[in-house]
Amino acid sequence: MVPRRAKMFVYGNDDVRCQEVQKFIEGAGILLEVRDTKEDPFHHQELMNLIGFLNISHFLNKMSESYTKHKLDEAKLSREEMIQLILDDHSLLRYPILQSTRLITVGCDQDKIANMLQIDANGQAEELPKDIGNRQTARRHSSRKRSAVSN
Description:
By secondary structure, the protein is an alpha+beta fold. The chain is 39% helix and 12% strand. It contains six helices and four strands; from the N terminus they run βαβαααββαα. Strands 2-1-3-4 form a four-stranded mixed beta sheet, covered by helices on one side. A hairpin with a 4-residue loop joins β3 and β4. It is elongated and about 45 Å long. The relative contact order is 0.17. The C terminus is likely disordered.
């Protein structure tokens, strides 16, 4: 079985909670690529791709000094202005940011992380069905649905 992979974005290495999340994920057998955005900051297109069409407010660290300094609770900035502000000051992002193939979660909530990465209550990666993504399996499931509808 191919091991699952995820990316974890952190800001500096001084946050104990991020280190606990990293141990939790790696302990479940997930291969984790960790990137410190303080040392290797996001580029414009990377940040745009990461956030995608999600609401930027989910990514903001409302407890940061920069959030207060820029009065972001009152500001009416465009999406592009907010992206540029984050690029100028990465401390505006809430960390860790975890990304799997198609899913993303922000923060240290281990229940959300476990759900996203399919880690069971014992901290182990759950087995994925062997035929996941198999076209014949998809056809069988779709034909069952059709036959059930036609009756």
